[in-house]
Amino acid sequence: MTDSGTPAPTTTSTGRRLEVGDVAPDFTLPTADGGQVSLSSYRGRSVVVYFYPAAMTPGCTTQATDFNDSLDPLRGAGFDVVGVSPDEPARLAEFAAREGLAFPLASDPGHGVLEAWGAWGEKSTYGRLSLGVIRSTVVVGADGRVVHAAYGVRAKDHVERLRRTLGVDA
Length: 170
What we know:
By secondary structure, the protein is an alpha/beta fold. The chain has a single domain (39-165), classed as Glutaredoxin (3-Layer(aba) Sandwich). It is 25% helix and 26% strand. It has 5 helices and 9 strands, in the order βββααβαβαββββα. A 5-stranded mixed beta sheet has the order 5-4-3-8-9. It has a two-stranded antiparallel ribbon with strand order 1-2. InterPro entries: AhpC/TSA (IPR000866), Peroxiredoxin_BCP/PrxQ (IPR050924), Thioredoxin-like_sf (IPR036249), Thioredoxin_domain (IPR013766). One of its GO terms (molecular function) is thioredoxin-dependent peroxiredoxin activity. This is thioredoxin-dependent peroxiredoxin. It holds the Pfam family AhpC-TSA.
């Protein structure tokens, strides 16, 4: 589903979209801080994994800063946050420093995780079809299963809508 509640277009040329109840594919990716992040390290805690096209672009900055501004309420409700993009770690480090982001930004330049999670595929931008990151958010429960998945989301107000969906007070 998109943020507006309409069905999201299906991924046409790569992996299938995750659905509620699916086991989320594990991953280990390099991060902006020079370390690594693995989905398995969040077992026992819920995590919001969001996929965005490119660091330091207007929409991606809006979304990242909205997640950052919501970290305390999300963490208080038991949700950690991880952002994933095809950007290299050095670019993610610059983005995190510039915006003061306090959650992991993971680098997936080969698109393997993006594809496995259904966040890489054909999309339309200003009427032109291209292959790229489909802005997506997947919430994984403490047991490693998907509890919410949204594809083709809009950056503006997305975090606010997600918080309402998850029952996280403002």
